[in-house]
Amino acid sequence: YRLTYYTPDYQVKETDILAAFRMTPQPGVPPEECGAAVAAESSTGTWTTVWTDGLTSLDRYKGRCYDIEPVPGEENQYIAYVAYPLDLFEEGSVTNLFTSIVGNVFGFKA
């Protein structure tokens, strides 16, 4: 996930939906890989691969982990900042937004 979803040079857009996730990487997993996994699993990383993938731009719809900061005073805990393009979500659907961002990553292990 790291090569696709961890984008520290990404410039946040006014139209992005921003989320912050507190995470504890599994032993041996770098925080960047964990943050990228959160971005992937809460956006396009859960999409099933089909032949029509060539018709959809991953770059347009994917979540991007653009920053990671250690939690002060907490060992091996980090805050991952993820930007989601507005087009990823159904217009006016808070349920769709919460299902994608919150539902897919609770209990997730990276």
UniProtKB/TrEMBL annotation:
Keywords: Calvin cycle, Carbon dioxide fixation, Chloroplast, Lyase, Monooxygenase, Oxidoreductase, Photorespiration, Plastid. It is found in: Plastid. InterPro entries: RuBisCO, RuBisCO_lsu_fd_N, RuBisCO_lsu_N_sf. It catalyses: 2 (2R)-3-phosphoglycerate + 2 H(+) = D-ribulose 1,5-bisphosphate + CO2 + H2O; D-ribulose 1,5-bisphosphate + O2 = 2-phosphoglycolate + (2R)-3-phosphoglycerate + 2 H(+). Transmembrane segments: none annotated. It holds the Pfam family RuBisCO_large_N. It is an enzyme of class 4 (lyase). This is Ribulose bisphosphate carboxylase large chain.
